[in-house]
Amino acid sequence: MKWQDVEAKQKKVAKILTNGLKSDRLVHAYLFIGDRGTGKKDVAQLFACSYFCQNKQGIDPCGQCSECKRILSGNHPDLMVVKPDGRSIKKEQVATLIKEFTYRGVESNKKFFIIEQADELTASAANSLLKFIEEPQSQTIAILCAENRHKLLDTIISRCQLIQFAPLSPEAIESQLIEEGFAKALARTVTALTGDINEARALCGDEWFANARSSVIHFMEDLYNQSNHAIITLYEQVSLVLNDSAKAQTGLDLMVIWMRDVLNIHMDRGDAVIFSDQIETLKKQALILSVDHVAGALSIILDAKRRLDSNSQPISVIEQLALRLQEGAGSYV
Question: DNA polymerase III delta subunit C-terminal domain spans which residues (predicted)?
Fold first, then answer.
């Protein structure tokens, strides 16, 4: 990763940090705030590489020297990463960090530490950390990553430079997934479900999700084009992949996206279609279904999502959904 990659996704973040690197005016503690998947950990690692790299190209780390390689592999002696132990970061972990940082750097006077999920510090751990960053050592940089700034001590926040990470746009996530080799249609579907690049990447690589997407496509196509076959598709495909409540919720989300795509076809918004590999099928359904019918179908699917929360048998919810969707336009009122 280079700083231009950060600029493409987090322009303000890149500007603040690169300006500091170029002018050699770095503060001792930064607080990275942003939703999960917005790149906080990746930027922290890049920042560490730029800080230690001996063969920088401008401010970009080379990625090949021993400093960079050890940072990227998690084995640099003067870089320490603290993560939650279980559900929280405990006082003992901060104490170990402080002890390690009382020693001189192994290879230079530079020291760097990253605290992931800093908003999960226990009260005692947070107070210990506060005392440590109140008296910073020269050439020591701390980066705290958090999603919820309101869970952090105000005194910790006041001693850090706040760096706000914006949510990634669906376009940015889709582009990143395509660059990584995932199919465009799959990438676009995933970005409609989550704004977290890590979760999106995991879904794209999950065979279950690919099967779920395929099953929902066949089911929605059969519902209106081969209604007699829809129930077979329901039992032979859908019921096998949407076999628990969490998976069924994802399946229903995909159905919502499908019906919104039909609505987008009605409104001549083909560029907004998520199931981009199913344009012809969607156009056929737009000819069959009126706008009111589509709106009614959306309402029924959303109602099924609500009922699924309190029903331990997801297949029964989807069975009822299929029957209601097939009742015809007269029921969508």
Answer: 244-313
Whether the CB-CB separation of 102 and 135 falls below 8 Å is answered with: no
Work out the angle at residue 144's Cα, subtended by the Cα atoms of residues 93 and 118, and round it to the nearest 5 degrees: 55
Distances (CA, A) of 3 to 10, 73, 102, 198: 10, 19, 31, 20
For 3-167, CATH number out of 2.40.160.120, 3.40.50.300, 1.10.132.80, 3.40.50.410 equals 3.40.50.300
74 by DSSP, 3-state: which?
Answer: coil
Q: Which residues contact 313 (CB under 8 A, 6 or more apart)?
A: none
For residues 24 and 312, the model is more confident at 24
The token duo for 71 is 């940072």
Global pTM reads 0.69
pLDDT digits (tens, 9 = 90+) for 160-196: 999 999 988 888 899 989 999 999 999 999 999 998 8
CB-based contact 93:129 (threshold 8 Å):
no
**Crossing angle (nearest 10°) for helices 207-225 and 184-191:** 90
CA distance 107 to 51: 13
- Spell out the domain ranges in the chain: 3-167, 206-331
The DSSP code sequence of 197-236 is HHHHHHHHT-HHHHHHHHHHHHHHHHHHHSHHHHHHHIII
Angle CA 229–231–233, to nearest 5: 70
- Quick check: 46 and 18 in contact, CB under 8 A? no
9-35 confidence digits (pLDDT tens):
899 999 999 999 999 899 999 999 998
Cα–Cα–Cα angle for 43, 45, 46, rounded to 5 degrees: 65
